[in-house]
Amino acid sequence: MEDNNKDLKVIDVFDLVKKMWANKKLYTKTLPIAFVISCIYILGFPRYYSTEIKLAPELGGSSMVSTLGSLASSLGFDLNELESNDAITPLLYPDLMEDNGFVTSLFNVKVTSKDGSINTTYHDYLQKYQKPIIWLVPIDWVKNLFKKEGEGGGTGGTDPYCLSKKEDEIAKIIRGKINISFDKKTAVISISVQDQDALICKTIGDSVKTRLQDFITEYRTNKARIDYDYYLKLTMEAKQDYERARQEYGRTADANSSVALKSVELKLEDMENDLQLRFNSYSAVNSQMQVAKAKVQECTPAFTVIKGASVPVKPSGPKRMFFVLAMLFLTTLGTSFYIVVRKYNFQ
Fold first, then answer.
1. What is the dihedral of CA 338, 342, 343, 346, to 10 degrees?
2. Do 147 and 244 belong together in one domain?
3. I want to staple 152 with a disulfide (CB 3.0 to 4.6 A). Which of 111, 164, 255, 284 is the partner?
4. Could you tell me if 325 and 24 are in contact, meaning their C-beta atoms sit under 8 angstroms apart?
5. Average pLDDT of span 64-88
6. CA-CA distance, 49 to 315, in Å (whole number)?
7. Does 136 share its domain with 60?
8. Per-residue confidence (pLDDT) for residue 51, from 0 to 100
């Protein structure tokens, strides 16, 4: 037991500090080198800006369910989700970024840089005006030498589900810049966008918000709009039938105005009854059409913008000062560890 204790090496903190101070020249060598290398490295990354939008869509449900839902949300439950018969719940909205149709709809968004030097589509902006990471330029150059252009549509009339290699790369870049999340406790949709230009960042944020609202509205009103179109078609057909019967009744009545035959009176009476039936049919389907039209409006969700997109004043990253300080701290730890190992001869 005593032999084991002798093998243990006790570290004297004060002696260790003296040893570090005695080797201060080593710090004066490693820290400046780490500072220069970290500065050169982080300066190769272009600055980017970010903006965030918070959107609260209207969720269906009675006031009682809404009250219980607000209480249950604090416990992590979502009664609105349980009550809803929708096939697409708000929890699936973030998955829209996986759909090529939704992403490629941003290709033709008109964007203008904050200084006004760039005025083009978002597709061309990402393809031609993005500042690259300097350290990846040689790697990308080598890759481009061996790259083969894939088959697919061109910009504009593109089939979103049959993209070329370039368009697929642009779509991947967009997915990396945009994030949609849903908080099931507060039922708030958050949209965050990153880009190298502050104004373009805001523009794309607004565009994503608009497209998300359109998607939600179209989905929520789809059944009601189908019903409305159906009753509108029936109403137009019933109206045409009624108009034809009315005109025919008018012509027959005018042609036999001076005839006092009983057969003519019976014919006019039958035509009048038929006209009344057609009018009743037209009135019935017209009423149903009006109800279906009101249903479309009822199903159309309202959106409350809690936080709108704003033009960022300061870049969000990269955090250059933080990165350099972190590298200096790690270098200090590494140098100190080297001194400790050398002094106590740890194996």
1. 100
2. no
3. 164
4. no
5. 49
6. 5
7. yes
8. 95
